[in-house]
Amino acid sequence: MDEQPYQHLTPERILDAAAEAGFVPTGRFLALNSYENRVYLVDVEDGAGIVLKFYRPGRWSEDQIREEHAFAVELAGSDLQVVAPLSTGGETLHYDGRYAFAAYPRVGGRWPELGTPADRRQMGRFLGRLHAMGAAGRFQYRDALDLVGEMEYAAAFILEGDWVSSDLTDAYEAVAGQVIDTVADVAEAFAGCSWQRIHGDLHAGNVLWREGPSVVDLDDCVTGPVVQDIWMLLPSETDHRESMLEDLIEGYETFFSFDLRELGLIEALRARRIMTYAAWLGRRWDDPAFPRAFPWFEEARYWEQHILMLKEQLAVLRELA
Questions:
Q1: Which of 69, 90, 304, 305 falls between 20 and 30 A from 142, CA-CA?
Q2: What residues contact 230, with CB distance under 8 A and at least 6 apart?
Q3: What is the pTM of this model?
Q4: Which has the closest alpha carbon to 310: 185, 165, 178?
Q5: Is the separation of the CB atoms in 124 and 251 below 8 Å?
């Protein structure tokens, strides 16, 4: 049987890691909702608890993780509510011999509803400040968002892995190819837009709201267009999307200029997410947590719906062309 990525992450290792990070664990911990990495809330003496994040082996290099940490610390150091890794003896990245891990403060908050113009403008101001800081430096080791390349890889992975049943393969291959070609045209048209350091995966689950936003999990920080950190916060209902976007940009431009041309990238970025999400599930299928959490991934119905979603997204892309 092939070795699973986290099979050696035992309770003893988790508690030993807390000690390695400079804390005294009480022995109590709770697994938090995370699939790409493993994340635990660990109870420690003389504190409210810490969050331990164990990086998926082989995903990032040490330089890339350290650059993620440095970006988070830089943002937090400018009084932005970004949850940065805790430092022990000047070190934020630790190893237990097999796993790289980091400790974070425990931060509470609720799901950001962004239901009022005031909240949306506040979120926009936060993003404007984050991106102003992002523009002030450059990544050396982190990836750059590659719209077309990532989608081509996703489609090839799905087809070569025989994830789609034989009766749906032709339909998937056809629509995926058409979506990629259309996104390639979009990417070429927006080649002049400036790219910079961004969060990269700023969906609502990575925002904790108290009196305002706190942002967590810069695991996917990349060099990319700033609109990538905006569009996933928008509602799926098109009727509300425009007014919400206007409020976000109004607040955003208090601190940083927004290039309105980037709005034309949103549907291409959405297409990228649709395709890469499916490939991500397939790439992680050897992790037992994935078949348990996503059992529908191997069902024909999922792929029928996935192909339909790609067709609908293709229609949207062509309508905007």
A1: 90
A2: 127, 202, 245, 248, 252
A3: 0.95
A4: 178
A5: yes
Measured distance CA(220)–CA(187) in Å, rounded: 20
CA 29 to chain centre: 25
Q: What is the mean pLDDT of the chain?
A: 95
Mind listing the domains of the chain with CATH numbers? Answer: 11-105 (3.30.200.20), 117-320 (1.10.510.10)
Q: Read off the pLDDT band of 191 (50, 70, 90).
A: confident
The percentage of the chain sitting over the pLDDT mark of 70, rounded to a whole number, equals: 99
pLDDT one-digit tens code per residue, 27-71: 999 999 999 999 999 999 987 899 999 999 999 999 999 999 999
Q: Is 26 helix (H, G, I), strand (E, B) or coil?
A: strand
Structure tokens at 144: 């750059």
- Contact present, 235 and 263 (Cβ < 8 Å): no
Distance CA 157, CA 279 (A): 7
Closest by CA position to 320, among listed 230, 189, 218, 207:
189
Known active-site residue 185: no
* Residue 2: pLDDT over 60: no
Active-site residue, selected from the candidate residues 217, 220, 229, 287: 217
- Among 63, 167, 185, 201, the active-site one is 201
Q: Three-class SS of residue 314?
A: helix
Q: Tell me the average pLDDT across 178-185.
A: 97
